[in-house]
Amino acid sequence: MAEASVKTLETRTDVSTPAAVDAATPPQARPDLLSRLRAPRRPRIWFEILLIAVSYWTYSLIRNAVPEQKAVALANADFLWRLEQALGIAVEKTVNHTVNSVTWLIVGMNYYYATLHFVVTLGVLAWLYRRHPGRYAPTRLVLFATTGVALVGYYFYPLAPPRLMETEHFIDTVLVHHTWGSMASGNLKNMSNQYAAMPSMHIGWSLWCGLTIFAVATVPWARVLGLLYPTATLVVIVATANHFWLDAVGGMICLAFGYAVSRAWYGAMPHRLPRHPLHTGPHPATAALLNRFRGQRT
C-alpha cells in the first residue's frame, strides 16, 4: 500500500514538473518577436499567389521605369565588349551567327527565352510549396532578394544587349525569325526597358532553380536536370544576342547576395532547414494584421 502511494506521488510530481518549469521560465528566455518572425512556417496558398503577383508587378514597374539612357547603355556595351575581347572570352557573336544558321534550333531558343524563364521558376516554387513547405519561405526570400538587388544594377548601370549594338552586326534572332522570344523586340519593344541587360535575371532565376533542385531533390536524374537548366539558359541568352557572358556573371553575383540575405535571416541555408516547418500557426505579422482588422470591425 505504501509502495503504491509512493508511485502515485512520483507520478504526480513528474506530471506537474513541466508546468512548474514553464511558469518559472524568465521572460527573457522565451522566444522574442524577432525569433518568431524568422521561424519558417507553413505557407498559405492565397498569400503566396498574391505576394508573387504583386512582387512581379512591382519588379516590372520599377524595371521599366528606369530611364532608358540609350547613349550611356550603348557606351557601356562597347566597354563590356572590349573588356571581354581583352579577356579572350568575346565569342558571343560567333555563337549568335552559328546557332542562327540552324533555323529550328534558334527558333526553339527564342521560345525557350520567352517562356521557360517564368514557367520553370513558378514550377519550382509550386514544388517547394507542396513537397518542402519548411524550406519554401527561405528559398523564396533568395529569389526575391536576388531580383531586388538586380533592380539596383538596372538603375546604376544601363546596358544595351548585343543585338542592339549598331556596329557589331549581332543578329536579333526574334526579328529575323518572326518569333515572340523577347519583350524587348518587335511590336512589344515599347513595353519593356531595352537597356536593362545587366545583370541577367534569366541566369539569376535559372541558377536559383537549378541549385534549389540539386540541393533538395533526391532523385539523381532530377538533380542532373537541375544543373543542366542554367547551363542551357546561358547558351540561349548568348545565342539569341540578349546578353553578354558578363551579364551572366552579374546574375550570379545577385544570386549570391540573395543567398546571403536568406542565410542571415533564417540562420541557415534553405536546404539545411527542416523539410516541414516546426511552426504551423499563423505568422506573427499576419496575426497582428488580422487582430487589428477584427478590432476595427468590432
UniProtKB/TrEMBL annotation:
Region called Disordered, residue ranges: 1-24
Domain Inositolphosphotransferase Aur1/Ipt1 residues, every copy: 80-260
Topology with respect to the bilayer: Multi-pass membrane protein
InterPro entries the UniProt entry points to: Aur1/Ipt1 (IPR026841), IPC_Synthase-Related (IPR052185)
Chief place where the protein resides: membrane
Keyword annotations from UniProtKB, A to Z: Membrane, Transmembrane, Transmembrane helix
Signal peptide: none
Protein location: Membrane
Pfam families, per the entry: PAP2_3
Residue stretches spanning the membrane: 45-62, 111-129, 141-157, 195-217, 224-242, 248-266
Entry-linked PANTHER family: PA-PHOSPHATASE RELATED-FAMILY PROTEIN DDB_G0268928, PTHR31310
Name of this protein: Phosphatase PAP2 family protein
Taxonomy of the source species: Bacteria, Bacillati, Actinomycetota, Actinomycetes, Kitasatosporales
